[in-house]
Amino acid sequence: MAIDFELPADLRDLQARIRAFIAAEIIPLERDPRCTPHGPTEDLKRALNDRARAAGLLSPHVAREYGGLALSHVGRAVAFEEAGYSPLGPVALNVAAPDEGNMHLLEAVATPAQKERWLRPLATATIRSCFCMTEPAPGSGSDPSMLATTATRDGDHFLINGGKWFITGADGAALAIVMANTEDAGATMFLSDMNAPGIVVERSMGSLDTCFPGGHGVVRFEDLRVPATDVLGEVGKGFEYAQVRLSPARLTHCMRWLGAARRAHDVAADYARKRTAFGKPIGEHEGVGFMLADNEMDLHMARLAIRHCAWVLDRGDLALHESSRTKVIVSEATWRVVDRCVQILGGQGVTDETIVARIFADLRAFRIYDGPSEVHRYSIAKRILRGRRGHEPDQH
Ligand SMILES: Cc1cc2nc3c(=O)[nH]c(=O)nc-3n(C[C@H](O)[C@H](O)[C@H](O)COP(=O)(O)OP(=O)(O)OC[C@H]3O[C@@H](n4cnc5c(N)ncnc54)[C@H](O)[C@@H]3O)c2cc1C
Prior knowledge:
two-stranded antiparallel ribbon, 17% strand, binds flavin-adenine dinucleotide, alpha+beta, 46% helix, eight-stranded mixed beta sheet, 11 helices
């Protein structure tokens, strides 16, 4: 069977539509004062979502019954890269983290009643959500098995107690998906209204990135009462569902950040063509030209790794190994690209004269969240030592 790198006509059409939409409707809003250190305000988010809705581009990943285009993972790779071209693009299309990953998880695991209550308003961008997993020491961070938040049975309810941090979007979210340990069955996911008594958003953490609505919150659960009907899936299957969410979710981060790195590269390449030093455009100095060439090679490698992993997911595989591999490749390649762009732009690279400094600051955390590079390398190495031969041509 031949390998076909050509995109189907409907995806090429979608790609062109999103590209034009981002250029005409979203990039002009990048300097809007409603872009704050803790992400776009709710008001700006609404305005962005309204534009995407009018263009027929809101939530393209969800099923048609929830108003989406039911995109495959390969389809998402194409669409989300285009959305990522602006720091506001993923929010506009309602494909930003953590809502996009949460919608994916709800589609896969939630009951019909839970979907009506939470997935439908998420898909229409009427509400936001957060995913509460990471805890301060001695709780779980890189090592999820250290989960310390507890869920104790109390009749037909659970009482949740514990603390989480780095919870993206917590401030202003309507829904929390909470990972907690039950005494008898272990890690379990719970759905909770963020306004329920027993949830306290203590504070927003200051952070390098500014692209996620609601910033990153420190959250405390004090006897949060959750009915057993609000368990997501089955009690004790929390880690199983985390894999259902994390593998595609870390890949969609790769897709969006690839778009962001491509934007930085376009800005830097334009500067390298126009700015002269020592008698010629700086791009014609080998030191700068080689940085542009390295950027293109990194962007290409990142895109190939993403599309391959998306193809594996579309075959119905969980793609745990492939998504780990791709996450390291893309988070590190895009980081190299954007860092070179800062250098090519000279002093402007670290100012807000161009979008590149903002992308640089937004991107840094991607080598840490959804698994630091070291943890993915650790997992990949463990599989290699167990005999996996992922480097061979017939082993995706
Ligand atoms: C911007 C941002 C957004 C986030 N959003 C969310 C969210 O919405 N919900 C949520 O639950 N969490 C979120 N997180 C948390 C994120 O998933 C964690 O930061 C990440 O899992 C690492 O955990 P930690 O910070 O506790 O690092 P630690 O576990 O303390 O690890 C620190 C460092 O130790 C090293 N390390 C750890 N294990 C190994 C190993 N096996 N081999 C080699 N080195 C190792 C790595 O370099 C790692 O960076 C977010 C984080 C950030 C920065």
